[in-house]
Amino acid sequence: MLDELDQKLLAQLSEGLPICSRPYLEIGTRLGISENDVIERLKQLQTNGIIKRFGVIVKHATVGYRANAMCVWQVPENQIDEIAAYLLKFSFVTLCYQRPTLSQWRYNLYCMIHGKDKETVNAQIAQINSNSQMRNFEHQILFSRKCFKQRGAIYRN
After folding, report:
1. Do 65 and 40 reside in the same domain of the chain?
2. Is residue 35 part of a domain?
3. 3-class secondary-structure state, position 34
């Protein structure tokens, strides 16, 4: 059960962290508690499974990244970990994960690449695929056509 202060803290998080050098201090000031109390309460909320993960949402278009591509590969199950580790070595790969295949969709390894333009992203994908092992895997490049609203989790009682 969440107490009133935890509920207020979660409401603050739903708005996003303040953009400043000490966001937990800022939230603490708003709630009338210390920076350390904010951090400790967040740790407890994570330990209790109320907060599943905590991260940053980058609005790529706002910072000039207009070409965003989801790259998908069909990789044998016994090679997923090895190929995912290879993909994650590239600084331009911002996300990499596995999904089950479907009868109409045989791809199981996904990664996201954000670039300033399509030419850059295509060159980065070519760099990934230059590895002789990668040439064995069927793949597709799916460029985003629309930027959807990005936001963090909303916590409700």
Report:
1. no
2. yes
3. coil
> What is the three-class DSSP state of 25?
helix
Which residues constitute the domain of residue 75? 60-143
Tens digit of pLDDT for each residue in 129-138?
999 889 889 9
**Chain center to CA of 11:** 21
Number of domains the chain contains: 2
Comparing CA positions, the residue from 52, 57, 106 lying closest to residue 77 is 106
Joined together, the tokens standing for residue 42 give 């967040």
Q: The whole model's pTM is what?
A: 0.62
pLDDT above 60 (res 157): no
Q: Determine the Cα–Cα distance for residues 131 and 45; give it in Å rounded to an integer.
A: 43
Q: How far apart are the first and last CA of the chain?
A: 9
Task: Report percent pLDDT > 70 for the chain.
Answer: 86
Residues 91, 18 share a domain: no
Q: Are residues 134 and 78 in the same domain?
A: yes
Q: Residue 85 is part of a domain; what is its CATH number?
A: 3.30.70.3460
Report yes or no: 51 and 45 within 8 Å, Cβ to Cβ: yes
* pLDDT tens track for 36-59: 999 999 999 999 998 887 776 666
Half-sphere exposure of 14 (CA within 13 A, CB side): 10
Residue 60: Cβ within 10 Å count:
19
